[in-house]
Endonuclease IV
Amino acid sequence: MRIGAHVRSDTHPVETAEKLGVDVIQMFVQDPQSFDKPQPHPQTEALKASPLEIVVHSAYRINVASLNNRLRMPSRNAVALQAQAAADLGAFGLVVHGGHLREGEALEEGIANWRKLFTRQAEKGGFGVPILIENTAGGEGAIARQLEAIDRLWDAVGDQGAGFCLDTCHAWAGGEDLLGIVERVMAITGRIDLVHLNNSRDEFDSARDRHANLQDGTIDPDLLADVARAAGAPIILETPADGLADDVAYLKEALA
């Protein structure tokens, strides 16, 4: 089992990974709150030379489903640029949130915009790395909160090479029972490329995206370990930094 962690804004990710004892890291390639063009990471050569597997998380501002041109168009451009930056690091994918719509906007239109992301980029030669769509925690206009919506999304993008990232906190907050979640997702997408294994500070179906350390939240940590085991995909912990090392140790023991 490949266990990893999100290293946030760490400027020495290889050393951080070694201290944590992880095999996989997730990182940003730019300010996650901006649409700035990614700049080469100062540790690019060290990252490429290391045995670490790398996945990149896209900027939080990205919303390719949006019906607002002023948000959707820069989002599409940002996905392409960040996917190329991920490829330059040797990453195996770029995680992109499902996005959301405004009140009164039709889910079908947001899903159509997701398909356009892939079909238009295919005309330019495709993305530098696979795009891994992540389920989201909440909001009435969320594109990928519940499995029913993800099913409809996959009907549109499943033949475009899209990958899937399952976030346990998001699923819990979105009202999806984690018992059997892997099997239900696989029945829809046919794949789980990455798991964000996070506990939740809030109750089931809260629609609140607040991560907790594995043994500190409202989700049974044994259930989280079961999800990790069943998925058989690389695991990224996005849990609070103060308890991250303990989370790695707990998960290694639970999966041994």
